[in-house]
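=== Structure Prediction Worksheet ===
Name of assembly: unnamed complex
Input type: mixed (protein and possibly other molecules)
Chain count: two
Listed entries:
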Amino acid sequence: MIYREAGQFKTSYEADEAIFPVRQDRVFVIGLLVVAFFVIPVIGNDYWLRSVLTPFLIFSLAALGLNILTGYAGQISLGTAGFMAVGAFAAYKLSTGIPELNIIIVFILSGIIAALVGIAFGLPSLRIKGFYLAVTTLAAHFFIEWTLTHFGWFTNYSTSGVISAPEMVLFGYTIESAESRYLLALSIVVVMTLLAKNLIRSELGRAWMAIRDMDVAAEVIGIPMLKTKLLAFAISSFYCGVAGALWAFIYIGTVEPQAFDINRAFEVLFMVIIGGLGSIYGSFMGAAFIVLLPILITNIAFAFGANLPAEVLTNAQLIIFGSLIIFFLIVEPYGLARLWQVAKEKLRLWPFPH
Amino acid sequence: MLEFAFQEPMFALEVIIGGLLSGIMYSLVALGFVLIFKASGIFNFAQGALVLFAALTFVKMLEFGVNFWLAIVITLAIMMVLALSIERVVLRPLVNQPLIILFMATIGLNFLIEGLAQGIWGAEVHSLDLGIPEEPLEGLMDAVGISITYFELASAGIAAAMVFGLSIFFNKTRVGRALRAVADDHQAAMSVGIPLQHIWALTWAAAGIVALVAGMLWGAKIGVQFSLALLALKALPVLILGGFDSVAGAIVGGLIIGALEKFSEVFIGPYVGGAIENWFPYVFATVFLLFRPQGLFGQKIIERV
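=== Predicted Assembly ===
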């Protein structure tokens, strides 16, 4: 009843090719954006904006980047954290080297630098496939981690080990408060999501999916492997790089390689898998799940009044986290995005299922 | 520094031999991966966690005052139970799913087992004494000036025995052949009447045994602690170099990676700031794969366009 597209006739090609051809989708997305931009900054408190929603947005961006590579182009990567680190350090070097540079341009440039690094480490994908490729992307991760920790140039020869990100000024306004940080992250994420959404509807996106589904067949119908695969790596790394820069600048406020260790790469991979491989809103749902889950576990533990020692809590988190991942894979291997689809199908018929 | 290596051939040799022996230790961890990959096509990320779990269980048994051999038997029994429950709870519902899903499931399993191991047995560092002395072999030291400890020799011997045993198991026994059939194609294997469930439980139990051996030896070397779970990351370049589905590859890959790692650290490391042993094996293995995408001994999948 509510979700039914009957009666919505498309009379032009533009209407047929719109991003959200169904009116209900359009209303829902616009409503969501209005809430995200105007309601949440007003009602959200400092803790929620700073420690939950901002990392959620940044993680979504990273998950989106990995989803482009793994979900759409079918190349498994464990190098996400490495590419995020490249983005963060590139942004740091750029903004300390050229302080007058607009922060948005800094983020874009650091994304481009991450993309270049991504292309370099994506080259093996032309020869190597599947799990072999996954392990070789770990080479990227460890190499980047080592390079960033061992050469003082990247940290401007800082001796303290903790480098705080320079302050961000946008249009003469210093971005300091939780609300402004959240809004900046949100704007960047919205723009980049829109780009991604259009990208995967384009020729390039369809070429990626062809390679994912069967690379030999894709090559036979004339899809250039080299260009398409490397573009997947480049664009994915661009997203991860921007996410890394946002992570360092907007979220934690310090630039350190430790923030991008191998567990971060796994976290992002989980978001993609739990959210749904090859789905844009799946990336967001996966990120929400992984960000909220530890908070939920901690709060439930507190709610039961048990003042558990931190060690027990960490182990309990590991156990619950692991079990939930297995549970999800068994119940719904195609992720939360698939559940959403099922819900939409149900809504289409509801309340008269016959 | 490379010139230095040529000027001091004995020192270079000692470094390489030390590397080879530590490479065998990597092979032991890699063997567990190979076992499961060969038998089910699953890239089992939880192998490191299995090593940790086995080692912690074993050490705890010893600390409870259980006899050494009895402790081994009990730990093996626990590993079997773990393997059976993994098969029942995780793998059986996931039959015929894409491999990436199974891979993700093992990452989930990795967290689960890590949490369980530390939740049940505590997170302290335990020392483990297997009764193999850490002293160098005297004769060898006097004769050629190269120091190899009894312990290193014993672990090399154990690794060799395991490889020998596993090769026979895979190639000569009925069960071994069934394992390889399952790895080739779940559905085809099931349709010719191979009991998939038994085979998988068996494989995971065998991987548990390998994990126990690796855990005991590594535990004696670096102490039984959380970092045992990270050994999996050390074993990965060994795996891709040797080929995921080759027992021999795990050993040869381990030897090459071990030797290269130590050699590069001692002779190339000082030029570039040191601590390169974390990434050097990965980069080396990657470059190698560019020329031979299936690794040294991996099964070649023929694909032509």
